[in-house]
């Protein structure tokens, strides 16, 4: 199966805006609930050999995980490679864009996110040994919620402040992933997210502004990583 992530971000900025969103979701769905709370360290990498990375991590993946990763590498484009510590779990994350954005910041992506045994530092070294260099390190506290059949993540990000992510994940058969019907499924999921965001009165963070924020953070990440500092980029 191919896992597609359809994700739309809304920049809330201040804590009171985050609380307003939570109140609206609680009022709008009787089944609204928090599903998890976690703290994350996310390390972004660039400019390496993606096939060498697959080789380096292959002994740490189950056969079905390795098959999924290889398929994303074969069919995707503009890869984003990350390592993540989510509470005590360590994960390898590889994303590939399937729309007009980049794999780091876009709406629809092929996604590989799987737990691995090495520590975060050890996994970083495996990535670096494939020629990748660290682009930036990010930290955030995340609460995840279920709202009207989708996942809503409320993040307190270093640099960005409060950010909401509205996400639908769709699993499609590998052999059918490029067919018109599946493109329709992705478009339908995006339309559903747009409707929910409109109901809640939150706006999508434009891709061009997100790219400017992302660029500023990457250039200055040591000033923000692990802190509560926030910047504003229009």
From TrEMBL:
Pfam families: CYTH (PF01928). Residues 3-220 form the CYTH domain. It comes from the Bacteria. InterPro entries: CYTH-like_dom_sf, CYTH_domain. This is CYTH domain-containing protein. The lineage of its organism: Bacteria, Candidatus Kaiseribacteriota.
